[in-house]
Amino acid sequence: MQNTAISFSVSVDYDESKIPVLIEKLKEKFNVSYENHALELITIRNYDQQTIDRVCVMKEILLEQKTKTTAQLVVRKLD
Predict the structure, then answer these.
(1) I need a labelling partner for 12 at 20 to 30 A (CA). Which of 25, 50, 64, 65 fits?
(2) Greatest alpha-carbon span in the chain
(3) Predicted confidence (pLDDT) per residue in 26-39, tens digit
(4) What is the helix (H) or strand (E) element at residue 8, kind and residue range?
């Protein structure tokens, strides 16, 4: 989950019986965009940019959060 002053991003496991209903409900009040692809959550402790670059080869970073010691990335494999 990632919040800013004007947006909210969340990654969840896709459940065919729940997620489409949730998306439709949210669309009633919000501008909703979503990705329905196989995604991967990568957590790197004590990271550096070289490590991020290495683990993200042939992957698109969709969401990125960093603290001083930990980087978390939601990525999609490129074809």
Answers:
(1) 50
(2) 42
(3) 999 999 988 777 88
(4) strand 8-9
Token output for 54: 């290495």
Name the pTM for this structure. 0.69
Phi and psi torsions of 51, nearest 5°: -65, -45
Alpha-carbon torsion, ordered 72, 66, 57, 53, to 10 deg: -150
pLDDT digits (tens, 9 = 90+) for 38-69: 889 999 999 999 999 999 999 999 889 999 99
Scored b (16 or more CB within 10 A) or e, 45-70 reads eebeeeebeeebeebeeebeeeeeee
Cα end-to-end span (Å), the chain? 26
Residue 64 backbone dihedrals phi, psi, to 5 degrees: -140, 130
